[in-house]
Amino acid sequence: MKKLLFALLILFFILIAGYQIAKYQFGPTYDGEIEITGLSTETEVYYDDYGIPHIYATNEADAYMTLGYVHAQDRLFQMEMMRRVGSGTLAEMLGENVVDVDKFFRTLGIPKHAEWTTELWEKDGNTPWKTATEAYIKGVNHFINTGNLPIEYTLLGMKPREFTVNDIHSIVGYMSFTFAMAMKTDPLVTKMARNLDPSYLKVLSVHTLPQHYLIPNSYPLRNSENSEIVLESKLSTLLDKLPVPLLEGSNSWVIGPSRTASGEVLFLNDTHIGFAQPSVWYEAHLEYPGFSYYGNHLAGMPFGLVGHTRELSIGLTMFENDDQDFFEEKLNPNNPNETVYGEDFRPIKKRTEEIKVKGKDPVNFEIRESIHGPIMNDVIPEIGRLTENPVASWWVYILEPSKAIEATYKMARAKNVQEVESAVRLIHAPGLNVMYGDNKGNIAWWAAAKLPIRPEHVSSKIFLDGSNPIDEPKAWIPFEENPMSINPESGFVASANNQPDTLSNGIFYPGYYYPGDRWNRIAKAVTSRTDWTQENSKGLQLEAVNENHPLNLLSMIQTVDNELFKGYEPALDAMKSWNGSHNLESIVPTVYYKWLYHTLHGMMADELGEDDFANFLKTFLYIRSLPSLIRTDDSPWWDNISTSSKETKKQIVEDALKKCLEELTAQFGSNTDKWVWKEAVILEHPHPLGAKKPLDKIFNVKAPAVTANEESINKLAFQLNGSGIYRVHSGPAMRIIIDFQNVESGISVLPTGQSGNYFSQWYSDQAEMYAKGEYRPMLMNEDFIKTQSKNKLTFRGK
């Protein structure tokens, strides 16, 4: 026994020593001095208790060179993954398993678009945003060449190449793709339209329904000369391989002075993004003469997409507009390299690209483009199974070069609502809702996107006829007619990925909007009182209640015979009184979602097949159509087409309930008191290398159970499935609350931690806070920061 204890003690000390050696070799540096070639004056970085760098510089270039360095030492591997996805070079680092991902992004045109944007960037003269970006890149590259590279590179046997502006443009392209709902939805809707009776589609919400909640527009007065605001006193399997998360949705609401206790603007934002480790946003606070900004940065982006100064705050949600159409081409019967276009023919352009593959020979593949865009049959399996005709992607993003760098630079430096709108105009895609509040009492929301005007006969969710020019978009909506609201009489603006109301030009703009359950809860709460504060806003931001799900559940309960609940009466009683809360101690969500899955599967899998049924559950169409599907008694979906008899709602729902109760009993036991929601929910933030065991045990970040839900304000989404275990895959990527009574007391929280370096003390320190609904400060007060900071880095030129 003594020998065993001695051996264990030796092993313990070996492990401790090994960890310390690895930390010294691969860990970040948060104290001391660092020399950077090109830095003109000394710059100081104070780290707060949560690892956020507070950068104090004497000029802009030094501030961004320093930001590049500290951003890279915390998030370099994340930057690597982002730029490789956007440039179609992932297989060079991760191997042949992701060759299809590279093919997809190259075919879609993101790398080609990045190169085009970079080419124009190089031709531009010197601009402030160009100078600041290049300084940031110098800082990143100084870390790559001199700093402790994260351990992931050693594990993969790779070394990073230097960072470039083309990498930034590739990251912007990836960010622009991430919504991608058209690719998940349009092939499925087209298949339904072609294979099923029209009565099937009538039950679905392919387009916004009257019962959905709309975002009201409030257009400002404008100067007739320059359009300036005049203020008044008032793809599923393939995408699963991605090592970086997708942007999915978001909430933001800004409350005007008439509804706050302080009489100042109250600003809230929580962007909904796929969970990953590290989490998406990197926070940084920059100070130099004439500039003070606290921003949330994407990996590899020099300027914060979300952030605030002492004068104003800017937030984002996804607009969810439809900016992608699919054109099914007809080939010239005499020449397969041409497509029919009206009375004429158009050539198919071809190019061959080489994909480098780690440990394998390079892969060469051909990309074809019609007059409408790249042909997607080979890289989107759903399209390839649907038709043999070439189907081209017409996507707004690749039609013009990106100005995202210029836009984000200008937004961070805006002094008022007019200057923010001027910067917002530069965003052509993806569609974003830009939220705004300032210390003068102004609140605003703009839908930022270049919106095509489609012919009236066109349904943008179904493949269009590439041979007929009349299906093509005809013009662009002027920015002034985009959805927006400036200082509305309601005293608040809010967006939750739902449909904007009719535009000033009379267009009800199509998109992949959510039904507005979140927006309605926000609007009802905000307008119910006039004493909102930073503190009482937390409860609304953390609310896990959905009003529609109890109505769905009640419809299901009323359909079945109560005899089926014999022995499960406590569950039935709880379900009848459910208010839609996803409290962790509640048993109702555990029963409801399993029963719901089996009901939908019984309804739809026979028509769609297992693969497309699974795809359906991953689209906006599922969320938006669910109430209609469940509550329509005479829907054709209820009939199982694989049987000779005609099934009814009662039969399908009762069969689903029997399966549900049987499986939950096997899973949790016969005592329904133990069927609590927290036992069915798992939250784990996956690292790119965590897909391979045992690296998941090292790099992934596990968190306590959270109030997983569908379409509550605190949206913590999961994939509906029949297993009874729900892995939360996305949610708020931060939770920001700022009261302009005291901007320096703003609060936020990240899902895991500020650093992506495994050996950082800030790798996962916020994970439990986040799961429990806690917040921490966003510091801006210089005296407090410098007095309280325990870690300081000093940068000097050499």
Automatic annotation (TrEMBL):
Keywords associated with the record:
Hydrolase, Zymogen
Q: Which InterPro entries match?
A: Ntn_hydrolases_N, Pen/GL7ACA/AHL_acylase, Penicillin_amidase_A-knob, Penicillin_amidase_dom1, Penicillin_amidase_N_B-knob, S45
Gene3D superfamilies in the record:
1.10.1400.10, 2.30.120.10, Glutamine Phosphoribosylpyrophosphate, subunit 1, domain 1, Penicillin Amidohydrolase, domain 1
Q: Identify the Pfam families for this entry.
A: Penicil_amidase
Q: Which domain of life is it from?
A: Bacteria
| The keyword Lipoprotein belongs to this UniProt entry's keyword annotation | no
| Family from the record | Belongs to the peptidase S45 family.
Record-given protein name: Penicillin acylase family protein
Origin species:
Shivajiella indica
